[in-house]
Design brief:
Layout lengths: L1 H10 L2 H12 L5 H14 L1 H4 L9 H13 L3 H20 L29 H12 L5 H13 L3 H5 L6 E2 L4 E4 L17 E4 L2 H14 L7 E2 L2 E5 L4 H8 L11 H12 L5 H7 L18 H25 L19
Antiparallel strand pairs: 1-2, 2-3, 4-5
């Protein structure tokens, strides 16, 4: 009997169990996220734990493994790997491979996470200068259009670069992002709600200009390496850096914070409309999440008002800064090159 148990232990190595877990979970994940999880295991776990029977692995062994990651200067990776370990051992327990509570709470062994907010411009004068600089960017047309749309749409950079022409109705002025394509949501792909983005006249104009170039492709912003893949997730970020705008000053995600702050504090938009358009979970008085068409007329008006406002501050900046490039009053400054 002891020999049989020993054989079963070695059949259930950490790597074999992790592979079983991954094969089940990947059906509800984006392929890109699946690749990331697999790579984290291959680089951080399998070389040290992969061949061990999973029933022989203890909390101190995992702690030692995580400390190895931290010592190489990757604490965030260590936190992500710890979350993966937790899920693998929960799977093994449910499958009857390991006893209950074989490992302890790994999160208590890790350094506290430092919260870092995405840099964003929230001063209207600085925002006008930034928008003016974006319009002057000299790069490929898809990247130029992405830069123009990013401030207009309230969406995550990942959602924008995955925009498909089949999702866009220019006549209706709508972009419907399927729930399974939404980024930044913790629920499984099957449960993610669709997200409707009303398009302002300015956004429609940009997309109409782009469509003759990329309309034959699946993605509105195709990869330079081929139209069957979306634009690189670094394309917009690289464009900002080429304009000498650092990560401490503005990011692609930062435009969402810009819209949230200025929309509320300057334009007086209702917080629930802003949150809904940012694809955050907003519930009605009965505790149910609003669906994609909730407050659609109000959100259309908000998005058009926002686009008109951006035009106005950009025009005002162009009139006021004709004597030279924009220099903000307070540090950190926006080092924007308009040449």
């Amino acid at each position: 009997m002891a020999k049989v148990v020993s054989q079963l232990d070695h059949q259930h190595t950490f790597e074999s169990v992790a592979t079983q877990w991954l094969s089940i979970r990947e059906s509800s994940w984006d392929p890109e996220y699946t690749r990331t999880v697999r790579q984290r295991l291959e680089l951080n776990a399998y070389p040290w734990l992969g061949k061990l029977p999973i029933s022989s692995i203890s909390t101190p062994m995992l702690f030692e493994n995580l400390q190895r990651i931290i010592k190489r200067g990757a604490p965030e990776t260590a936190r992500r790997v710890a979350q993966i370990y937790k899920q693998i051992f929960e799977f093994a327990e449910a499958a009857g491979i390991t006893p209950p509570n074989q490992i302890g709470n790994l999160s208590r062994t890790l350094p506290a996470k430092r919260v870092k907010h995405f840099a964003a411009v929230t001063d209207p004068e600085k925002l006008g200068a930034l928008l003016k600089a974006l319009d002057s960017y000299s790069g490929t047309m898809p990247v130029c259009c992405a830069l123009k749309l990013t401030p207009l749409l309230f969406c995550r950079p990942g959602d924008l670069r995955h925009m498909e022409w089949s999702e866009v109705n220019l006549d209706a002025g709508e972009w419907l992002i399927p729930g399974h394509e939404m980024k930044g949501l913790t629920v499984t792909k099957q449960d993610r709600p669709d997200h409707l983005v009303p398009l302002s006249q300015q956004a429609i104009a940009v997309l109409r200009e782009l469509k003759p170039l990329t309309g034959r492709h699946r993605y509105a912003f195709p990869s330079a390496r081929g139209g069957d893949r979306p634009m690189s997730n670094n394309a917009v970020l690289s464009a900002l850096r080429r304009m000498d705008i650092s990560g401490d000053e503005m990011t692609g995600h930062g435009f969402r914070a810009t819209a949230r702050t200025i929309g509320a504090e300057v334009l007086g938009f209702r917080p629930d409309l802003l949150e809904h358009q940012l694809a955050h979970t907003v519930k009605n008085p009965l505790g149910r999440a609003y669906d994609r068409t909730s407050f659609l007329p109000e959100r259309r008006d908000m998005m058009q008002t926002w686009a008109d406002y951006l035009d106005s501050i950009k025009t005002e900046c162009a009139l006021m800064s004709s004597a030279g490039p924009f220099k903000p009053v307070q540090a950190p400054s926006l080092r924007i090159s308009t040449g």
